[in-house]
Task: structure prediction
Amino acid sequence: MENYYVTTPIYYVNDEPHLGHIYTTIAADVLARHQRLSGKDVFFLTGVDEHGQKVQQAAEGRGIEPIELADQVVARYQSLWPELEISNDDFIRTSSDRHKAGVQAMWRRLENAGTIYKDFYEDWYCVPCETYWTETQLKDADLWDSKQCPDCKRAVEKIQEESYFFRLSAFQDRLIEYIKANPDFIAPASRRNEVLSFIESGLRDLSVSRTTFSWGVPVPGDEKHVIYVWIDALTNYLSALGFPEPEQPKYWPADVHLIGKDILRFHAVYWPAMLMAADLPLPKRIYAHGWWTVEGEKMSKSKGNALRPDKLLKQYDADVLRYFLLREVPFGHDGDFSFAALKQRYNSELANDVGNLLNRSLAMLNKYRAGVLGTAAEENGTDRALIADVEAMQREVADYMDKQAFHLALDRINAVVRHGNRYVEENTPWALAKQGEDVRLDTVLYHLVETLRLVALQLLPFMPEKMTGMLSQILDRSVQADDFSFSADGGWGVLEAGQQCRKPEPLFPRMD
Ligand code: MSP
Result:
């Protein structure tokens, strides 16, 4: 069985979960579910990033220990994920022994490869981004006078301390070569170019330890140093698989690391360089998605407009949120979350298109045939066109999912749904019933229900609960997502004549 390994970033525990966190995790979940349906042996990892100065300061601000803060936030994530139907196979905490062992093993490998040396660091640091900046970088960004972080524009602080360094500069040429030779490694393409020009502008060695705070993983053999939180965090992708036992764990290299655009440099420059130094294979792909604003505004703690998933879930079904987030904005682009846009998408695509096709098809089958499917004995061109469209959709959706083009996958599935609704108009089953054209009526109803079943199968990764509901109505039994696979259930004609279908129960009632 082929392996498939997908990851999310591990989330800092200084903040409660918000829209940005659920977005990546939902996207990763959809990929994981799609690949499981495709028959792959999937490992889907998420978790939390507990260490670093930012978390230590946040804990101090609340008058508690960092681990207490971490425990509180972890509890939030662990209750949130099932509510959003996140099917992660593991949850990594960076405070766990298994992770710390992985980080220290990574450190030793970097050291043994001669890529770590001790020196003195004297420059600037942005705590919110956990990022180092040189004076030149601040000057180049015109931020020297205000001493602001070029990324987040918050105040940077001066650091003067003994530090270990990683010879990042030594990997400049290899990284450029690798990225050029592997066009799918960094996506979307605009991000790949961004990374290339960053590397081409020159890489400096990276400070990889701190001595002025303690919340982290100690440097092996020199315990007054704490390992830089990004070296620590990035290693989660291996430590969760058991690294360093075995050194090349099952599932490694990852098929895709999903991340937000703000953490691209860490994933597409530092992480590959570390892996090269440690002589480990590189992940196959890094996909950086865009950022959400909310009703046109940047989410921020000070404005208090961060969208909190627990609030959203009081208003909307998890499936509706999952659908909207992946349908509204092309993955990789920035986008805006608005309640009006959500309602609009829901009513037009879910209530009017999918919901309507399901309701009218099952209603007619129940009205004219007591809910029992007949045989498709008399096919004409409209039937063949529908089948061809369904089959093309299955192939195209698979391609889109391999490229993380969620919105295109959904658009393609929706095209089949609209085709189904057109097919009803073309074939007017009510007229066939009136005229007693039984063979043709059975054929049309069969094509409708079979189309619905195959649409539900493709939508299952996006809306597990709604789609198991839809499949239960069609198959007249209660089903679960993992009852299905594309190989067993994906073929046209798997539904058999004589299949009893339920009366329709509205899945997507209109939103007002
Ligand atoms: N701990 C690091 C990641 C380490 S991975 C080895 C981190 N954590 S974070 O909690 O600050 O952010 C996690 C993710 O949330 C990032 O991918 C970031 O892009 C994403 N988002 C935060 N705000 C966002 C939006 N407004 N919109 C979309 N995603 C955003 O960084």
The two ends are 47 Å apart (CA to CA). The chain is about 50% helix and 15% strand.
